[in-house]
Amino acid sequence: QVQLVESGGGLVQAGGSLRLSCAASGSIFSINVMGWYRQPPGKQRELVASIGTVGNTIYADSVKGRFTISRDNARNTVNLQMNSLKPEDTAVYYCRLLRGDGMVYWGKGTLVTVSS
């Protein structure tokens, strides 16, 4: 069993910053990929950024240069620093863990609203 708990969402003006955090607990394995996905209103869920155990990262083109993903393996946490936020970044943000055995787990999501 794996639990993912997100925090840090909220309302921010365009150009502002937010930091999302996700804490993982349970049988997460030492090898995994943690990431953030988002689902804008009326749209499909999409990858924002992911980071492997050794720090390899992937970013969506739309957030490159603005968002930074990081992780603390000792604390089993992953963070997403979001700068220069735009109204189109408004979405529910979900933490995701891809475990080394292929199992995927999701958090319940945290809402980020960027006002213009």
The number of distinct β-strands equals 11
Q: Count up the helices.
A: 0
Q: Which residue ranges are poorly predicted, with pLDDT under 50 across at least 5 consecutive positions?
A: none
Largest sheet: 7 strands, mixed
Helical percentage: under 10%
Distance between the first and last residues' Cα: 40 Å
The secondary structure category is mainly beta
**Outline, from the CA principal axes?**
globular
Series of H and E elements: EEEEEEEEEEE
Keywords:
globular, 58% strand, mainly beta, 0% helix, 4-stranded antiparallel β-sheet, 116 residues
What does this structure look like?
There is one protein chain. With 116 residues, the chain is an all-beta fold. The chain has strands at 2-7, 10-13, 18-26, 32-39, 46-52, 57-59, 67-72, 77-82, 91-99, 104-106, 110-115. Strands 2, 4, 5, 6, 9, 10 and 11 form a seven-stranded mixed β-sheet that branches. A four-stranded antiparallel β-sheet has the order 1-3-8-7, with no helix packed on it. The mean pLDDT is 96.
